Structure formats: structure tokens, C-alpha cells
Amino acid sequence: MSGKTMELGVTLKIIKNNVMWLIALPLIAMVIAFGISKYYIVPQYTSSAQIFITTNAESGSEKETAVYSEQLKTNIQMANTFNTILKSSRTLETVRTELNLTESNDALAKKINIQSDKDSLVFTVSVEDASPEKAQKIVNKITETYQKDLPKLVSNNKVIILEPANLPLEPTSPNIIINTMIAFVLGIIGNILLVSLIYLFRNVIEGEADLEEMSLKFIGDIPLIK
Question: Which among 80, 126, 181, 203 is placed 20 to 30 Å from 73, CA to CA?
């Protein structure tokens, strides 16, 4: 049967004969995905805070305004440096010590996500944890530590906390609806594979075309006697 496209009539017959399995497979996949997402995977909560990095230069005159503008451009170019300092062991070690966290610096760093808009020095610092209160405390401690530490490392810069960390009320993961829908799609793909396999490995002769594929000659029909 290699090189042969699936005949519509045979395909429909396979679907008809296995309709229960074809209906059950996506449903079973959805139930499993829902159960795992709902009862097995530990919910994770994300708390976020916004900080702004600016210069200490005053802008009372045109000259000072030009200096401030130039410094701001320099700071934007250093955005990746600020990001690295924020997740450095120097910052994380202080956070771990003051909050008595058991995670290592690497484990804590994996929980932290830092985002900034292009050409902007406004950073969003997020932490994901199984405890919403713990996530909030970690974010607040990170931003407070960074606010104190950055001026010591980079002169003429300071950190302004625009929004302190929020207390998340709803988990951000797992997304039960999305996981269930993905399972449904995978179930449909499984149905297509199942029908294809049944078609390819079927060993029933259903007509003259099947005989021709086996290089056999059709002689005649035998009437069915009841």
C-alpha cells in the first residue's frame, strides 16, 4: 500500500468501526490533563514590582539638563548591566540571609524574571513561588536591596520603587484551561494517527482494488447464500 493515498470510503469505514475509540481518546486525554493540572501540579504564584533607575544630576540649567540627558542615554545603554547586578549573587545573598531562605542563589535566580521596555529604565521584577506571601516578600526584599546597593556600585544612579510587590491572589500556573485544550488537540492528532495505522496495517480484502495491489487477478464473485 506504499505510495497510495487513503481512499475516502475505506477511511470512513475505519472511522465508523472505531468511532467509540475516536471519541474516547480526546476525552481521556482531556480528563488526564485536567486531573494532573488541578490535583498534581503545585500552583505557582507570581508577584511583581516596578522600579525606575535614574541619575542624581539636577536639571536646573541648560548645561545640567544636557548632562542629565547624556547620562540617561548612557544608563539606557547599560540596561543589561543593571539587569545583571539585580540578579547577581551579591544581591541574592543579601535577600537569602535577611529572609532566611533555604534556596541556593542559583535556585533563587531561576525564580526571578526581569523585564524592561526597549529604551526604558523601568524594570518589572517578578518572582514565582508556590507561596504568594513568600513571592511578595522576595520581590520587595530584592528591590529594597537593589535600591540601597546600586548607588554604591554605579555612581550618580539611584533606584526609585514605582510600585511595590503585589500579593497575588490567583495562581499564574498551571493554566488548567490551556492544558486541557492542548490535551484535546493531542487527542485529535492521536485519532488521525490511529486511523492511519489501521488503514496501513489492515489485512482485509474489501474489493478488486485490494487484489490489484497484491498482483492478484479477480476471477468472480461468490454469492452469499443465507
Answer: 126
